[in-house]
Amino acid sequence: xxKDKHILLCVTGGIAAYKAADICSxxxxxHSDVNVIMTxxxxxxxxxxxxxxxxxxxxxxxxxxxxxxxEVEHIALADKSDCVIVAPATANVIAKLAHGMADDMxxxxxxxxTCPKLIAPAMNTNMWNNPVVQDNLAILKKxxxxxxxxxxxxxxxxxxxxxxxxxxxxxxDWIINEICxxxxxxxxxxxxTAGPTCEDLDPVRFLTNRSSGKMGxxxxxxxxxxxxxxxxxxxxxxLPRPVGVDVIxxxxxxxxxxxxxxxxxxxxxxxxxxxxxxxxxxxxADNKIKKKEDDTDxxxxxxxxxxxxxxxxxxxxxxxxxxxxxxxxxNMLENSRKKLKKKNLDLIAANNVKVQGAGFQGxxxxxxxxxxxxxxxxxxxxxxxxxxxxxxxIMRLR
Length: 398
What we know:
By secondary structure, the chain is of the alpha/beta class. It folds into two domains: 6-179, Flavin prenyltransferase-like (Rossmann fold); 189-397, CoaB-like (Rossmann fold). It contains 13 helices and 21 strands. The protein has helices at residues 20-29, 48-55, 73-80, 91-98, 105-111, 125-129, 131-142, 168-179, 214-225, 253-261, 308-314, 332-342, 383-397, and strands at 6-11, 33-38, 83-89, 117-121, 146-147, 151-154, 160-164, 189-194, 199-200, 206-207, 229-234, 246-249, 269-272, 279-281, 302-304, 321-328, 347-352, 364-365, 368-370, 375-377, 381-382. The protein is elongated, with a radius of gyration of 25 Å.
């Protein structure tokens, strides 16, 4: 995702500095070139050797270090960087950056950077909640910085509350979201559905399917990384929230229908990647299903849930793009083309669940993208890559 990208990781003097090593490692594993700058105070918590072993670049700590190449080093680092991430960021460094101070290697270099800049604060809860700190963060936001909010939890100082550094994987996701793709979808409002739905039979059992939500989540994250304003309507899944995406949690097919249709008129692109449970109990009263007289079994008359995609197609507004998914076990192309026409879709992403690497649960997929006048067969690829191929095709057809 970050191949050939140059990331400048700036580490400041807080106890969370040790987590910066994990951030560095994850960035390197994403195939980016990482340079690290540490403040003098950060050296009290973690050594430069750690970062040098991880990223294979010299860690910079001193503005006046004589063991450097001929170029002015802070300018050279600023010029080559595709992204700056300050993590962890102390209240002191936040204040310096907000007011343009440049009194060490870190602040001098960052002040010279013109690339996207992200900052991940970490500090005591009372410091985090101090109005001065919040004002300084507001200044950074005004100048285009992305602030990765800290989490709540038990802090090193012994208290519990806000101020805990965001998870390293979350920080890396924000970096990916910011620089991995050109912003060709800026200004577009995109709605994506993902995951399964659940239809309760009784307080214990329910009907559902095997959808993991991975394909829909990848699409939502990819669209956000391309600059779109993304809403994700998600059934119950075990996945981290995509960064920069507004997530609406639902459970039943009716919940999903209500969430999607209420937002249809204000959406440019709708991508239904969710696998909706097709049936629900037909005779539910106070969440109870009537038992047979001998009490040995349960009679469960079923009825179909609402066809969300069909409704969207029937009410598609002018200029709106509608994409669905088709999972087939036979006659994939024929059945998918019928669905495309019947439901008034602009594009359908079809896959045969019998093909190895395609379908539910896995991290890969094999899609065929079908429109009225085109058909594009994609090879086996990661769901992230498949999501971007799908978005490429949507942008081509719009």
